[in-house]
Amino acid sequence: MSLQSPDTTKTFERTCIDTIRFLAVDAVQQADSGHPGMPMGMAPVAHALWTRHLKYDAAHPEWPDRDRFILSAGHGSMLLYGMLFLTGYGLTLDDLRHFRKLGSRTPGHPEYRDAPGIETTTGPLGQGFGNAVGMAIAEAFLGATFRDESGPLIDHYTYTIASDGDLMEGVSAEAASLAGHLGLGKLIVLYDDNLVSLDGPTEMAFTEDRMARFAAYRWHTQVVPDANDLTALDDALDAARAETERPSIIAVRSHIGYGSPHKQDTSKAHGSPLGLDEVKATKENLGWPLEPTFYVPDEVLAFYRKAGTRGAETRRAWDERLAAWRAAAPEKAAIWDRAWRREPAPGWEAALPTYEAGGAEATRVVSGAVINALAPFVPTMIGGSADLASSNNTLIKDAEVFRRGSHGGRNIWFGVREHAMASASNGMALHGGVIPYAATFFVFTDYQRPALRLGALMGAPVKYVFTHDSIGLGEDGPTHQPVEHLAILRATPNFTVLRPADATETVAAWRVAMGMNGGPVALVLTRQKLPTIDRTRYAPAEGVARGAYVLAEAGEGEPQVILIASGSEVHLALEAHERLAGEGVRSRVVSMPCRTLFFAQDEAYRDEVLPPAVEARLSIEAAATFGWRDVVGDHGRMIGLDRFGASAPADDLFEAFGFTAGHVYRVARELLGE
Ligand SMILES: Cc1ncc(C[n+]2csc(CCOP(=O)(O)OP(=O)(O)O)c2C)c(N)n1
């Protein structure tokens, strides 16, 4: 093991950097868990960024034109917390002392908005990288969209620190390929090339030429051979900013656990406290006082606090510039304001299409019509599909394409990169100023699951369009037929999934989606045509907003049987209901496009839709029955698909798997004891 000897001439900057290092060392030691090694190695990079490169004003962490910083290697959270404390974002030493404790603002991995300055939640490796690409997309789009005579109103860089693990993950490869293709020149990745990961040296599993790979992705690549060489870091960052056509990656050779006599450059420094003896040895080695812990020399704090105001003047000037632009261009300013509030322009609801009974339309086609009707009212809604735009119906017809050299377009060709698409969409949503939407086949949500989950955890308002929602897609067969996907998304906290039953419900579902800014919303849509429900005969679709509503009712008083369905199966329920009603049964159909929204209603409404006394309940959904027991109760029945589908025309599949009105009718009769 080659241990770099500590500086003999300890400069003031070295003292600053050691402060960052030992805040991480002490916090991890005190918490008795965490990751000291990465902050110890990358402290010089953080120091250089926050004191000389990042555009920020610590007192105004929400300034829209700030540079974004993302710690993709979220396990190194103490590096970020240390900087947010030192530069004056509002984190305190006490917060650092409570690292990883219940209710603290310094959880194990950075959590979006737990503390000011945390731009996104990271920890699952690769996600921060994808988020950064999305933030760079949002920046580029807004830069091209809102300008005054002196240039773009949004004009900042997106920086991320990524580790070996980040670059090993597939999502970063997808995202890097996309970023290079799109020419996101203001994205700068600092790669912590420390040759060590959790289990040991990276040579055990990660040996390709990383920079050659990124060069092939059309990135600008640089190498800084020693993380402690601040001049080299500065030069590389300057060069990265000077490169405007390509995203930049700087491979910084750092030493995990820098300064620890026995753990530096080994995976022992990665993910556990150094231990009291080694903390002592490391402090002695780097010439740091053993006591007090969490030691911050006054002059160091003063220096960083001053650095935290470096951007204050720039921010004030930007505010004034915005105010002048506002006064000169009030109409554009109104668009700007709505963009940051994620609000469509007035009149959008009246512009949505309406559908008459007698027709039939695939709900994916209706969604495409809604997107295009909405588009003029939400000029900062941008997005697209993972190479399925023509199937998902996501193209905004009158808009340009977001492409290399022309970033004002609203249609994004994500390519077959579902995971990066979702991760970047999270980044766009968190950046603000844009409303991202993203689409693929429902079954391929499997390829984006980690990003969907994190979006829900962060409350990132992304609109998802997932088409080909069931065996109804037919011949492509079981590989393409979702079965368990509704259950998974419904089980994901803060994720809203709507499966509308016809054109009218699809419009209503989009209305709900546009009103929800607290997390991701997915519309789950059919490939096949569905008849438009006669709303003069049955209930209007406003009930979609409450998750479920009584669509059809026969007879007076409490129903004898309730048929509950979502999406295409609502039509089977209606047909069976008509037959039952014709035979004098007091039957009811509940359309339940969104179980989560329904369960969030007050008890009175829930009991009105599903009277507790009515035990004869039958759910019909061409998907796993998982979760429906909560709706139908112990005595109810469920018609679902608890197996994989098959390849055949859709009608044959519905018939073969029991999704017919006749079968629904028969099970309903059985429930009635016949
Ligand atoms: C998707 C994902 N898989 C696994 C982990 C667990 N994990 C945390 S850090 C890490 C690898 C650490 O290696 P590296 O990225 O080089 O970070 P360093 O050791 O340099 O701090 C792993 C496997 C994770 N956080 N995310």
Q: Which structural class do you get from the secondary structure elements? A: alpha/beta
CATH architecture of the largest domain: 3-Layer(aba) Sandwich
CATH class identity of the largest domain: Alpha Beta
What is the fold-level CATH name, i.e. the topology of the largest domain? Rossmann fold
C-alpha Rg (nearest Å): 28 Å
Strand order, main sheet: write it out: 10-9-11-12-14-13
What molecules are bound to this protein? Answer: thiamine diphosphate
Mean of pLDDT: 97
How far from one another are the termini?
80 Å
State the shape.
elongated
Strand content: 5-15%
Unreliable parts:
1-8
* DSSP helix fraction: 25-40%
Note the topology:
Layout: H1 12-31, H2 37-53, E1 68-71, H3 77-86, H4 93-97, H5 127-145, E2 147-148, E3 151-152, E4 158-163, H6 164-168, H7 170-182, E5 187-192, H8 210-216, E6 220-224, H9 230-242, E7 248-252, H10 276-286, H11 298-307, H12 312-328, H13 330-341, E8 360-362, H14 363-374, E9 381-385, H15 389-392, E10 411-413, H16 418-431, E11 435-441, H17 449-458, E12 463-467, H18 485-491, E13 496-498, H19 503-515, E14 521-524, E15 529-531, E16 549-553, E17 561-565, H20 569-582, E18 587-591, H21 595-599, H22 603-609, E19 617-620, H23 629-632, E20 637-639, H24 650-656, H25 661-671
Parallel strand pairs: 1-4, 4-5, 5-7, 6-7, 9-10, 9-11, 11-12, 12-14, 13-14, 17-18, 17-19, 19-20
Antiparallel strand pairs: 2-3, 8-15, 16-18
